Amino acid sequence: MQSQFNFFSNQFHGKSILAETDLTPNEMKYLVDFGLHLKAEAKQNNYTKYLAGKNLALIFEKNSTRTRSAFTTAAFELGANPVFLGKNDIHLSHKESVADTAKVLGSMYDGIEFRGYKQSDVETLAKYSGVPVWNGLTDEWHPTQTIPDLITIKENFGSFDGVKIAYLGDGRNNVAHSLLVGCAMVGIDVAIVSPDELDPADDVVNIAKDYAKQSGAKIEITADLASGLKGANVVTTDVWVSMGEDNWQERIDLLTPYQVNMKALEMTGNLDGKLIVMHCLPAYHDLNTEVGQEVYAKYHLSELEITDEVFNSKYARQFDEAENRKHGIKAMIAATLGNMYIPHL
Length: 345
Hints:
It catalyses: carbamoyl phosphate + L-ornithine = L-citrulline + phosphate + H(+). GO terms for molecular function: amino acid binding; ornithine carbamoyltransferase activity. It is found in: Cytoplasm. There is one protein chain. By secondary structure, the chain is an alpha/beta fold. It is about 45% helix and about 15% strand. It folds into two domains: about 20-140 and about 325-335, Aspartate/ornithine carbamoyltransferase (Rossmann fold); about 145-325, Rossmann fold (3-Layer(aba) Sandwich). The strands form two sheets. A five-stranded parallel beta sheet has the order 7-6-5-8-9. The chain has a four-stranded parallel beta sheet with strand order 2-1-3-4, with helices on both faces. The two termini are about 25 Å apart.
């Protein structure tokens, strides 16, 4: 029997995904379901070569474990040839403009992934390359984290209906922004629980509220742990100091009350119900990293945004979430570059 996903031509074809807002809510839901489908197929060692013969440029200004591994394995499983281009491999913005680089790469590759700092750079790549461009992370948005996160939520709860997610920590970073908008798009209630100084940007909150009007999602931006965590089915967080930052003392002072620990999970009221914990990784939950040891030596903290107890608890889904990076990215690049038919959504 032919798969419902295995046809020719589709509405996604040629689309760049630079932020969640490049997708409609129905397109976002489709990519989540497609990712779950591809994951189920992979578990049976079934791989449809939607991208056979395609060449993909993977540009990494910022280092990565999950994004690089996910794009590389996703490309191979779809039949494509990925080529890694690190910050020391090309002249992006140094000896050659982003626009000129885009034109060169677009003439040689069928699709481009970009993981770096400026959102304007990934937008310029999309404008001038003539091929689909995918945002693997910028300082503003992280759609290749959101789609796998939504996959993780749906595979645990079966649907998005009646689900509430509480994000604890730095509410104005790219992960929080993307999660806020992505969840609002599909109808998941969202609470961003952070100190007032680290609230998400007003324009991003307004975007999320506009989607929430359509989906019925409830949006809460609060510094109050009890309010934000009440009724949550998903508790998630991110590192307190993002890549390129070094303001440890400030963040520790602000965010220590927002640590994901057992007390925080108890506030959900769902310890014996439907509850999972996510983290986009890497996580500072013990002293088994060089950075963890440096932080401990200077600030005397062995656990930061999440405790080791929670990280290794029955609620933890961060490694499923990490695996789902591959399946979500597979869905995204197959839909935008593969020869498939996807009916109007």
